[in-house]
Amino acid sequence: MKTKKDKKKFEYPGTSLLKKDVKTKILVTESSPTITITPKERNIKLRHIYHTGANIGYYHRVLSTLMSEKNVTIELIPLNDYLKVGNSGNIDVLSYQTFPDEKLNTKFNPNLVRMTDKLFHGFKGLKIIFDAQDCSDADAFSRFPDSKELPRVKSFPSKWFLEEYNVIMIAGIAATDIRTFPDGPKRDIEISCKFGGATGKYYFHRIRESVIEQLKLFFPKRVDFKQTEGNRKMYTEELRRTLISIGAPGWGAFSGSYQCALRAGALLFAHRTINDIQYLAHADLVDGEDYISYDLYNFHRKLKRLLDNPEEIERVRKNGREKFDMGFNYSKSVDILHTFIKENLEK
Predict the structure, then answer these.
(1) Which residues are CB-contacts of 211 (< 8 A; sequence separation ≥ 6)?
(2) Which end of the chain, N or C, is more open, meaning fewer C-beta atoms within 10 Å of its C-beta?
(3) How many CB atoms lie within 10 A of CB 110?
């Protein structure tokens, strides 16, 4: 049996002629092929400070994958515990999120946030902010003087916001299942409208109310209004049988129904506000190719034209599902975030 000492003395053929080029880290022998030695990638330590009362699941999913697939250690610290932990522990990257709406004092604690903001600004390493103001132009960190310069993760930002701010685009909010689905046995539901009417006097709610009124007036027997959105499995199965899914904005320019329609291969017929946002992180949805947009004044005319052109419905709905597959990619999001962190730590 060889001991550790014996193993050190063992020489492979050609090692007597071994030369080492220190600069290039390449070992060269006259009787052996060239061998490149790649130094082991150092472990990166990232600490994420989060508030539970906002849309955080998709970012935590990316961070979890970052830890399991890359050489990154992740710490998740609730905002309330940040004052206890601080910035100790040889952290390379500090990611920071507070509740996005400063006016909602039941969830946004201004006294606590003043102290955690100060801690965050005092960190000397790479800083990233997580902006939970989804699908809007709103800046959850407008109180920061360097808000536009700080790198941030934001779900479904407007195209204007992307131009003005330093956004790291990763796949945004998703249901627990983010796969696309093949067609069902038969698409026997012509039009599906699963959202409810207005619950308040807000602009986007009024759009929903008007859409429902027009559908009931012009297409009363061709629309499935049955509310199954609460049952995710049943909702997906119905969308797999649907030709056209009607989409309208909710609290913001984005609606979760857009995602569901594209995944299930239904044609997404969405309000024109969808044109203002970057819906997919890694691909661009094109109006008329991957979905069809409408406004209230042309809603009836556009929908009727679609129903009269089954070939166009088939083309657009299939394009939409394919584009969603390309653009809603968590693996690519993990690679983008990892590359961003590595490149900025090396500066």
Answers:
(1) 193, 246, 248, 271, 296, 299
(2) N
(3) 10
Pick from 75, 72, 70, 104: nearest CA to 89: 75
309 vs 301: CA distance, rounded Å: 13
The pLDDT tens digits of the residues spanning 135-172 come to: 678 899 999 999 999 999 998 899 999 999 999 998 87
Over residues 249-282, the pLDDT tens digits come to: 876 777 778 888 999 999 999 999 999 999 899 9
Please provide residue 47's backbone torsions phi and psi, each rounded to the nearest 5 degrees: -115, 125
Residues 266, 232, 254, 300: what is their CA dihedral angle, to the nearest 10 degrees?
A: 40
80 contacts 112 by C-beta, under 8 angstroms: yes
Q: What is the DSSP string of 10-61?
A: ---TTGGG-EEETTTTEEE-SSS--EEPPPPPPPEEEEEEE-SSSS-HHHHH
Residues 45, 50, 53: CA angle, nearest 5 degrees: 160
CA distances (Å), 347 to each of 122, 297, 340, in order? 19, 53, 11
For residue 75, the surrounding DSSP H or E stretch is strand 72-78
- State pLDDT tens for residues 100-117: 877 776 788 889 999 999
User: Which domains are delineated in the chain?
Assistant: 44-174+330-345 (3.40.50), 189-327 (3.40.50.2000)
Dmax over CA atoms of the chain, in Å, equals 90
Using left for φ > 0, alpha for ψ between -120 and 50, and beta otherwise, residue 265 falls in: left
**DSSP states of 83-147:** HHHTT-S--SEEEE---S-TT-TTT--HHHHHHHHHHHHH--SEEEEEE---SSS--TTTTSTTT
Strand order in the sheet with 242-247: 223-224, 189-192, 242-247, 267-271, 292-294
Q: Above 90 in pLDDT, residue 29?
A: no
Tally: H helices and E strands in the chain = 11, 14
- Does residue 192 contact residue 239 with C-beta atoms inside 8 Å? yes
